[in-house]
């Protein structure tokens, strides 16, 4: 009897020890303050995920990923450092050259562990000595800064960087050039779905085809990236504003399925047609042209004799004059901004008003150019329709 009782007590103890062990194994590990803060950041960024329509995607070897960016010539050229400067000393650096070929933004690695962004002008048939971009990384919050892209306005600037308030790897940031201070404003992380805990970079908006691009290695094998084509939003809208929960937003933040962003097929189809037009332009054999003026998706003029509507020939010559004036103003503004950055306090007061006046005049001229282009296109389309 005593033996049976002892065996029963031993059995109960084993059950208790086993249950205790299971509870210990099931207990969640205690998070560190850093992990708690990171988790909170992930939740905040997920909640603020921007509503984006993704048109298409392409998985491609990282060495070839630039070939997936089918950009309009007006955007300029995005290339590896070695292809522009013909040197192998900066194998991981990238360059954006403007459409005129007069200015470029480039990354350079001064050490094995750091990389910074610079600017260079093409003067007297060679590139000037690169100047460090002020405001981008003055407080060294980033370890490596790369993949520059300047919008056509000469002020809105995108890049990718490691460190700072990013989620991990490279994150995409945006900033604007402050002419008064002669430097860029504090960079802002553009958030999800563009950024993730992987590497995300080379964010480009093609204003001429109204298409956007960026690359990421999230959920990809080594040395492979996915390049996404998306529709640039007119205004910033978030999924949380539509009442979606954090769990419902998460798949959009991760870009689990681009098909889930196709709420309306028409914009996507129109975007694919614009992309097709860009591809056709790239595939056309080079010919000697006086100029290129796109009337519509099917008609492009290359000579003054191509214009048919009365007055269009004269209007186009006026357009050419305005474009040339805009380019001259843009170059003068570039130089004024550079001079402002190096000027003393007294000289800056004078330059500040001059730069602001030049920027306003340039914006007015740009509006005049767009209105003239629109008038010519409308006149030509109306004439061709009637005749």
Question: What is this structure, in a nutshell?
Answer:
With 387 residues, the protein is of the alpha+beta class. The chain is 38% helix and 23% strand. The protein has helices at residues 2-26, 33-47, 81-85, 246-254, 265-283, 312-342, 345-386; strands at residues 53-61, 77-80, 94-97, 103-108, 116-123, 126-127, 131-132, 142-150, 156-163, 170-178, 183-184, 188-189, 200-206, 211-216, 224-231, 293-294, 300-301.
Keywords:
single chain; 387 residues; 6-stranded antiparallel sheet; 5-stranded antiparallel sheet; 7 helices
Topology (SSEs and partners):
Blueprint: H1 2-26, H2 33-47, E1 53-61, E2 77-80, H3 81-85, E3 94-97, E4 103-108, E5 116-123, E6 126-127, E7 131-132, E8 142-150, E9 156-163, E10 170-178, E11 183-184, E12 188-189, E13 200-206, E14 211-216, E15 224-231, H4 246-254, H5 265-283, E16 293-294, E17 300-301, H6 312-342, H7 345-386
Antiparallel strand pairs: 1-15, 2-3, 3-4, 4-5, 5-6, 5-7, 8-9, 9-10, 10-11, 10-12, 13-14, 14-15, 16-17
Helix pairs in contact: 6-7
Note down, in words, how this protein is organized:
The mean pLDDT is 87. Strands 2, 3, 4, 5, 6 and 7 form a 6-stranded antiparallel β-sheet that branches. The protein has helices at residues 2-26, 33-47, 81-85, 246-254, 265-283, 312-342, 345-386, and strands at 53-61, 77-80, 94-97, 103-108, 116-123, 126-127, 131-132, 142-150, 156-163, 170-178, 183-184, 188-189, 200-206, 211-216, 224-231, 293-294, 300-301. The chain has 7 helices and 17 strands. It is 38% helix and 23% strand. It is an alpha+beta fold and 387 residues long. It starts with a helix and ends with a helix. The longest helix is centred in the C-terminal third of the chain and has 42 residues, at 345-386.
């Amino acid at each position: 009897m005593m033996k049976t009782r002892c065996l029963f007590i031993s059995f109960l103890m084993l059950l208790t020890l086993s249950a205790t062990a299971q509870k210990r194994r099931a207990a969640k590990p205690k998070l560190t303050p850093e992990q708690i803060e990171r988790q909170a950041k992930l939740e905040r960024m997920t909640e603020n995920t921007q509503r984006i329509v993704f048109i298409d995607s392409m998985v491609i070897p990282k060495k070839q990923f630039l070939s997936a960016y089918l950009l309009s010539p007006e955007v300029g050229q995005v290339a590896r450092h070695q292809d522009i400067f013909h040197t192998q000393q900066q194998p991981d650096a990238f360059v954006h050259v403007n459409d005129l070929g007069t200015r470029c933004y480039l990354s350079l690695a001064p050490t094995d562990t750091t990389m910074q962004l610079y600017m260079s002008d093409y003067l007297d048939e060679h590139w000037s000595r690169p100047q460090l971009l002020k405001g981008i990384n003055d407080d060294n919050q980033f370890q490596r800064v790369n993949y520059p892209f300047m919008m056509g306005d000469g002020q809105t600037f995108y890049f990718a960087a490691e460190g700072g308030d990013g989620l991990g790897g490279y994150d995409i940031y945006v900033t604007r050039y402050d002419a008064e201070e002669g430097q860029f404003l504090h960079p802002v992380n553009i958030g999800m779905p563009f950024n993730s805990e992987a590497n995300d970079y080379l964010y480009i908006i093609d204003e001429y085809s109204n298409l956007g691009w960026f690359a990421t290695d999230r959920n990809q094998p080594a040395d492979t990236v996915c390049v996404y084509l998306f529709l640039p939003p007119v205004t910033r809208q978030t999924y949380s504003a539509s009442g979606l929960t954090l769990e419902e937003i998460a798949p959009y933040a991760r870009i689990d399925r681009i098909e889930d962003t196709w709420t309306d097929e028409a914009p996507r189809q129109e975007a694919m047609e614009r992309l097709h037009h860009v591809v056709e332009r790239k595939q056309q054999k080079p010919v000697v042209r006086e100029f290129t003026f796109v009337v519509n998706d099917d008609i492009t003029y290359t000579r003054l004799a191509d214009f048919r509507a009365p007055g269009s020939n004269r209007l186009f010559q006026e357009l050419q004059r305005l474009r040339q004036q805009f380019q001259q103003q843009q170059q003068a503004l570039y130089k004024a901004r550079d001079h402002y950055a190096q000027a003393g306090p007294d000289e800056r007061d004078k330059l500040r008003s001059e730069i602001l006046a030049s920027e306003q005049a340039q914006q007015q001229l740009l509006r005049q150019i767009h209105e003239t282009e629109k008038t010519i296109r409308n006149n030509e389309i109306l004439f061709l329709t009637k005749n």
